[in-house]
Amino acid sequence: MLEVKGLSAGYHHLQILHELDLEVHEGEIVALVGANGAGKTTTLKTLSGLVRPTAGSITFGGDQAVGVRPSELVARGLVQVPEGRALFGPLTVEENLRMGLWTRRKEARASADLEEVFELFPILLERRKQLAETLSGGQQQMLAIGRALMTRPKLLMLDEPSTGLSPKLTWTVLDAVKTIRDRGVAVLLVEQNAAQALNLADRAYVLESGSIVLSGTGKELATDERVRKAYLGL
After folding, report:
1. Is residue 103 very low, low, confident or very high in pLDDT (cuts 50, 70, 90)?
2. What is the CATH number of domain 2-231?
3. What are the structural domain ranges in the chain?
4. HSE toward the beta carbon, residue 87, CA cutoff 13 A
5. What is the DSSP letter of 92?
6. In terms of pTM, does the model score above 0.85?
7. What residues does 212 pair with on adjacent strands?
8. At 197, is the pLDDT very low, low, confident or very high (cuts 50, 70, 90)?
9. How, if at all, do strands 78-81 and 155-159 pair?
10. What is the DSSP string of 104-173?
């Protein structure tokens, strides 16, 4: 579904990513773990078309994605939930969800898609008329994910979805990620809690200073001594 080869990118004259190779296949969760400043968010922004790569290729669904407008990538099914959620605070929960329909204005499945989001996150149904800015942090994260799901993504990219959440809400959100995968949406997950990310992921990559240094299944990396010492505190 997603194939990245030799990807390099950065900001102005500062190179952040160095010849990344990674893949995401249909029906899997892939985690990208690494320390703060390793280049995880830059990777997602580059895949989303927000940062122009200086070298390498990005293929999504068999088509070249480099140089494609972010809005077109969303329409194709490559959707990112950014760190910080970027909700429309003065709008209600339902209005925020319906904003996810803008790439599919010619389709008429809004009610069914809303029902699927409310099934995944029942609290959003209870709060559907509440302003987004008045929700708790966990509820806002659920809303951000729900809005992305309204675009009917093929690949959902999540940037630090557990930031600022309690352990209980973190597990609620990450359990929802598994359900999303089981519904047929591939997931590329950047998560600050490496242990949780690796436990959740089918496969994972370790990013250090903008380069992939390790890759394997989530279970393999969770038991790798280098990963355990550097990221799991073991």
Report:
1. confident
2. 3.40.50.300
3. 2-231
4. 27
5. B
6. yes
7. 207
8. very high
9. parallel
10. GTT---HHHHHHHHHHH-HHHHHTTTSBGGGS-HHHHHHHHHHHHHTT--SEEEEE-TTTT--HHHHHHH
